Amino acid sequence: MKIFKNKAVQALLSSLICIVLGVLIGYIVLLIINPEGAGKAIITLLKNFFYYPTSAMRREYFGSTLVKTAPLLMCSLSVLFAYKTGLFNIGAAGQYCIGVCACLFTALYFSWPWYLCLLCAVVAGALFGFIVGVLKSYCNVNEVISGIMLNWIALYITNAVLSLVKEPTSPYTYKLQGAMGKAALLPTLGPINKFFNGNKYITIAVPIAIIIAIAVWVILEKTRFGYELKATGFNRNAAKYAGMADKRNAILTLVIAGALAGLGASFYYQSGIQQWECTATSVPGMGFNGIAATFLGGLNPIGTIFSSFFLQHITDGGTHIDTMKYSAQISELISSVIIYLCGFVLFIKHTMNKVSINKEAKRLKKEASKPAEEKAKGGEA
Amino acid sequence: MEQKAQESYPYVIEMLHITKEFPGIKANDDITLQLKRGEIHALLGENGAGKSTLMSVLFGMYQPEKGEIRKNGKVVHIKDPNDATELGIGMVHQHFKLVECFSVLDNIILGVEPNTMGFLKKSEAKAKVVELSKHYGLAVDPDAKIEDITVGMQQRTEILKMLYRDNEILIFDEPTAVLTPQEIDELMQIMRNLKAEGKSILFISHKLNEIMAVADRCTVLRKGRYIGTVDTANTTVEELSAMMVGRNVNFHVEKKEAEIGDTVLKVRNVTVASKVHKNNAVKNVSFDVHAGEILCIAGIDGNGQTEFVHGLTGLEPLVSGSIEMLGKDITKASIRKRSTSGMSHIPEDRHKHGLVLDYTLEDNLVLQRYFEPEFTSKAGFLRRANIRKYAEKLIGDFDIRSGQGPETIARSMSGGNQQKAIVARELDKDPELLVAVQPTRGLDVGAIEHIHKQLVAKRDAGKAVLLVSLELDEVMDVPDRILVMYEGEIVGELDPKTTTQEELGLYMAGAKRDEVNVE
Hints:
The structure holds two protein chains of two kinds.
Chain A: H1 7-33, H2 38-47, H3 55-84, H4 92-109, H5 114-139, H6 143-162, H7 191-195, H8 205-222, H9 224-234, H10 236-241, H11 246-269, H12 286-296, H13 301-318, H14 330-342, H15 345-380
Helix pairs in contact in A: 1-2, 1-14, 1-15, 2-13, 3-8, 3-11, 3-12, 3-13, 4-5, 4-6, 4-11, 4-12, 5-6, 5-11, 8-9, 8-13, 12-13, 13-14
Chain B: H1 2-8, E1 11-22, E2 25-36, E3 40-45, H2 51-58, E4 66-71, E5 74-76, H3 81-86, E6 89-92, H4 104-109, E7 115-116, E8 119-120, H5 122-136, H6 151-164, E9 169-173, H7 181-196, E10 200-205, H8 208-214, E11 217-222, E12 225-231, H9 237-245, E13 263-273, E14 280-290, E15 294-298, H10 305-313, E16 320-325, E17 328-329, H11 335-340, E18 343-346, H12 350-354, H13 361-365, H14 384-398, H15 415-428, E19 433-437, H16 445-460, E20 464-469, H17 472-477, E21 481-486, E22 489-494, H18 501-508
Parallel strand pairs in B: 3-10, 3-11, 6-9, 9-10, 15-20, 15-21, 18-19, 19-20
Antiparallel strand pairs in B: 1-2, 1-4, 4-5, 7-8, 11-12, 13-14, 13-16, 16-17, 21-22
Helix pairs in contact in B: 14-15, 15-16
């Protein structure tokens, strides 16, 4: 049973337990709503792209899930990066939103090439992170409060600005096509797209997102900067005592976190798969789901690659649930239940740790009594 | 019948053959502690000897692997602190557990508020508290707020808390650490009163003089083992310390005549704001520290020493005044700048400032140097191999003990070894000025001796040492000069060779003051 004491195994196991619990509760909810189709619905949700009959279509929709995984992964990394410094970046959602604003506006209004639009999204996200950071460091404003408020500010700025580039008859922004916006589409992966049945939304965003996840891991674990950030996260006072620029680091962390979220927006909207709805009344859930992905991924950048994919997988899977038996919102409800449960990872981990410590104590107790007996025997001999 | 049988049994609490293990360490190994009814029983041991673990077992925070606890001869199972409370066991913690903005009375009744239908009946409680405080000679004002009263009074509030709950077994965890000499005398008298009223007291301490003065018997632990129980009437301080440390300890710090050199630190008219109150915690403080001397700032806890050190080391800004180190003005320099230009700082609170507890030992050992080329490459990557090598060297040189060497998480180390790690880190920087704030706080005699030797060695090597201490023995023994701080001001400069503890006590309590001229 030694394997359960390994931290990585514990993290993985607790994530898996959360997923199972989430699916179970999702199933119960389906049962309550309509017991007839529950079994089929939950399987549809878990199957996601396997729902499609042909291999080509499966690959195409697998590709679609990947396209949406990339932005989720970026939001998740944004939350994780700040979390390691002891900051809770709930503003990732707003940073993501303002990123959408920046890249779509520059794409559609100025017809800038993709890399400039991407850069604008990064800068916009970073700027929003910067605001939170400055407020935190110099005015002692809690980053959660300012983050939430900025989420709303970001939403309405985005709605207002993108209304300038919206289709006249719908609330949606123009598609990235033609002279206006085609240049902003991220480069596709060429021959690899063929594997995904020519899914044109698969872009360099997917591999880059994975590379960035690895880069974040390297920065946190191997560099002086990561050492400082984590020290600040664990113990702000000690970091200050050691002469680390704690205020500057807090700002820098939030700038980087904001940049990551902004980049996520670019990865999604510059693939052309989605248009912004200028009448949106809430920020996209991507930033919030990123929080769940962070914890489900065991607070490890590499882990978040998988957790982001899983969360996107069930979110997409939910859209295939039979709308004859269930209302249209059911897909979001069930995936939210699962995502919500995923937030319990730390709790499960803690419980597992406790159990294993108790077992260890019992084992020691046994062993402690053994040598005494042996000694007694030895003495007789 | 049963009542009588209970009273004839001499031991009110017995902990028999207690063994408690943690992964990699036996914190308690077959320890027996028998507390007689109506005695003051001292529990003596170095840091990491297992005193805290033993008390945690008694309070149900840990379950022992072996052994049993008996009350009045009957085996009891203490699963959590509530069980302990029900058995009439109460404790005054080293760090008081009081609600600062509540009154003394509110704190005493907290959790056991007398009420009818949820409405408080404070007058009843107050009468009982006043009665108790008269009876035992515990002078407190029940209506005063905790934040406004002295540390001694806060402690008396803690004692009243136990008495209010009719506890008959009272545990005092290092109760004198925060008191003035005069307050210590008062506490000793209170303990004797409690004993006379039939309470049984367990007195945890490593101050041998106090144990000799007040305790009837003393149980000594060493490295998790039971060494023995002795009657204090038949023993000596030397014998006790030898039992505790396992060898004879030299209490007196051996040092040769100081060779005073140039001025290293020049502090002028320094004023630092208080974090809790509106007024200034440090007022217009000026002094010099020279190379080759140990200057000690003495004073009772909370008289501005902490704030002064924070101002000196850059953790807090000054309101006014200037600081010069090695001829350079560092009044506005960053913490890092001060550190790299020759200042080392052993902080007062090792958990708050000194260590990143969730980091490994090796990461903590490079906390002040990680950015140096030796430990970070030009590209910003940590040189792990060098960090490991450096950590292993310090661990060897300073005898830092831990479960898994450099990879041990600092949180899992004993307090003494955590402190050793900090001292090792700060001394190895080879500072020109060492600011050591209570460097021996909570340490055992052996470790204290070691650290004092290190301070003297720095001084003999021609470095300047600024020691801030609350321990009278340390103040009298280690430094070459003493400055006494009272309510944020320097109220006296004393020569440890000619002054007495009593005189020092008068300055510390604010009963005596001189004008101190620096120039």
